[in-house]
Amino acid sequence: MSSPNTNNAYRDVCEDDGVLRQLARSRLARLFTRFAAGTVVSTACSQLTLVLLFGVLDASAAVSGAVAFVAGAIPNFLIHRFWTWRRSGPVGMRRELVPYLAVITFSGLVAVGITTAVDRLLGGAIADHALRTAVIAVVYGLSYLPVFVLKFALLDRLVFGAESDTANPAARRRRIRDSRDQVPTSTRA
Predict the structure, then answer these.
(1) What is the predicted pLDDT for the residue at 14?
(2) Would you say residue 3 lies in a domain?
(3) Which of 15, 27, 75, 156 would staple 161 via disulfide (CB 3.0–4.6 Å)?
(4) CB under 8 Å to 71, separation ≥6 — which residues?
């Protein structure tokens, strides 16, 4: 249940309820919501890996961050390709995988760089290993925030969303045909 103050805050941004409803039903809002949810899952995989490597196995922040990045990148690709953007069929190496790797490598380098820099800055300031692990895990997670929206936009425009109905009518026809092929002919009108 929303409070009157919450409704007023939205009204300050947009006076037209119809515009707000249309935005909530838009392709961009659906994609961004699924993108955020998928990112939570891949971030959990990354964080678990980072904490295990840095906290339990005492690996360096750089190694822990790099391995954690890979541990999150794999489910990230699968979730975003098949669920967020609803892509199917074989993965196109040049069309999807290479641009995806470029986008996530950039965000991964930012995360690993920030995490490693903070670990070096901490030096011996935090003697308790559990506390140091918690600080590094928080820094690693927060380091993805600066590139979150940029990553969404790049994945939508360059990688998964490029075959949208307006950008590629052939892709639309293929999706419609494939959808029809899933329905038995006896049920068609």
Answers:
(1) 59
(2) no
(3) 156
(4) 45, 46, 48, 49
Domain assignment present for residue 13? The answer is no
Give me the pLDDT at residue 60, please. Answer: 92
Report which of 98, 96, 68, 65 is spatially closest to residue 163, judged by C-alpha positions.
Answer: 96
Whole-number Å distance between alpha carbons of 42 and 68? 10
Task: Say whether 160 sits in a helix, a strand or coil.
Answer: coil
DSSP state of 111: H
Q: With respect to residue 94, please indicate whether it lies within any of the assigned structural domains.
A: yes
CA-based angle 40:98:154, to the nearest 5?
50
The tokens for 142 are: 């927060």
φ, ψ for residue 105, nearest 5 deg: -65, -40
C-beta of residue 35 within 8 angstroms of C-beta of residue 84: yes
Range of the domain at 61: 25-187
Q: Which residues contact 109 (CB under 8 A, 6 or more apart)?
A: none
pLDDT over 50 at 167, yes or no: no
Residue 166 lies in a domain: yes
